[in-house]
Specification:
single chain, alpha/beta, 9-stranded parallel β-sheet, 38 strands, 26% helix, 25% strand, globular, binds ligand MIG
Length: 634
Amino acid sequence: MIRKFRLGKPFDTKAVTAKIESESIDAFPLDLTLGEMCVVMFTLNGDDMIFGLGEAVRGINKRGWIYESWCSDETEHTEDKRSLYGAHNFIVVSGKKRKFGLFIDFPGKVEWDLGYNSRDKAKITICGNNVDFYYIDGDTERDIVKQFRQIIGKSYIPPFWAFGYQQSCWGYSKQSDFTSVRDNHRENNLPLDCIYMDIDYMEDFKDFTVNKELFPDFEAFVRDMKAHNIHLIPIIDAGVKKEKGYSVYDEGHKKGYFCKNPDGTDFECGVWPGIVGLPDFLNKDAREWFGSQYKKLIDIGIDGFWNDMNEPTLFYSKQGLDKAKAKLNDLINRDVDIWGFFGMKDAVMTMQNSMDDYSSFYHNVDGELICHKDVHNIYGAFMTNAAAEYFEREYGREKLLIFSRASYIGAHRTSGIWFGDNYSWWEHILLNLKMLPSVNMCGFLYCGADLGGFNNNVTGDLLLRWLALGVFTPLMRNHRALGTRAQEAYQFDNTEDFADVLAVRYRLIPYIYKTFRRCSDEDEMMFRPLAFDYPDDKIAREVEDQLMLGEECMIAPVYEQNKNGRTVYLPEDMTFIKLSGEDIFTEKLTKGLHYVEVNLNEVPLFVKENKKIPLAKPVLNTAELDTENLKYIG
Ligand code: MIG
């Protein structure tokens, strides 16, 4: 059962689609302290586990750390962090004595102390007092999540080809960069469906422009790629470059569609294009206007986009820069000692994404001015909704691919997400795995991490192991940062191993796609912690490096270097399957612990007794996939 409790006059975040009558706040079942900020408290029992919070660091079980819902351009996903790009305010508390779900619908900052200051207390601080609480009772974790999913609406479904393998790189710029990625995949028997265009394709990082020197006839280029069944997916950043004569800026400025300073002038800040205006995505007209800009690219054949920098990221603002300069000047005129040195460093480093800046600009919501910091967490979601609403109206559902970096619950209905700037670290394979069930709980089904890692230099074995997890994630994209070691599948001397692993993806697409659709239709999670399916199994409850997939499978990737396999826990008898190219290896294993060997070119998978999964013939593109003649294994 879902109970809603309203405090004050909450901002309409569009997270919940169901109409639910709210009860008196006095009946709220958890301890609640009211004030300028609201605090929710409850005791944690010894065996309580806490699931949820979507995109976040640390474990599947979130207990024992302090998290903050505050959409952040966080470039290092280490366990000391509190926030990443998304703000997903839903948790499930699960113990023997009681199980419940809690969704806090609030667009500003929320702090989740889940047994951090005191091991047996949860203390959730909401930075405001206009908020909707949803409290969900249920017998099982799955049931609680399903009830929640039913009130937030069905998850986004992308076009079928978006389940193919995708290659990306910050730094592909000229036309030949893209054609060579395409051709190298084909020549090496490596499948591919999409190539991403990062900010380099634009003219001076201006949204909705294409650099004419790099792409003399962009339309013909897009057509040529399409003829090879390759979709080009350009990036769109939140900030619009301030430049007279650039129509998007001129129009946005004239119509008052950018976020404002208190004096009514446009708030300006520095991001990749230089000084930008931030479109006011919370304003309905601005949203429609920005959404319709995508048409410029759609008209020339583009059918997918990724939205970036929409937390929003602010490298600096004019006021921040002035403050930092004054501080530096002051320091420079003195003898700089060690503290002066740190002062200088701080002056520069704290300029980025500062709370001062987020507190200084305003949105115009139906004539009412709202300070950004109070609605920060829905900015990116509303950017993506702007595009998605336009797409659906003009082109229909499931026609265009769109996913975002920043998100809030609600955006799961209109788009996917990717997990942002991870590293080419082994531990980030595991972080990728742990995030999957957490974001699924919050409705985000079309998702994935930068396979191979974004920052730092990859190695071939790391990429292979990571791909063997990516084979199961709806968004399967290899992406890396500018200046890092090349990580396309053909860059390594054992290219055949990569062909073997990528072939498995295409063999599994019918299964993955069907499971994905079903999970969207039935408000289910595609990936679940073992704890959800085997609540009475002590060992299963604590497993943090294996996941249930759909109703048939369990996955357990190898995520450590120089390992020829791993230990895996089977909560029931299962068939251990290894897929590699056209090869299939199967072995029946009984409930319990096993060490399984997995070569670098193999994808491990476990299928439950009496279940079977379909496999297609491996192909090099989704357009070539035969989804009718399937072979069932299990
Ligand atoms: O400040 O567009 O997360 O995927 O390659 C970096 C360049 C901006 C961050 C994204 C990343 C993308 C990069 N962007």
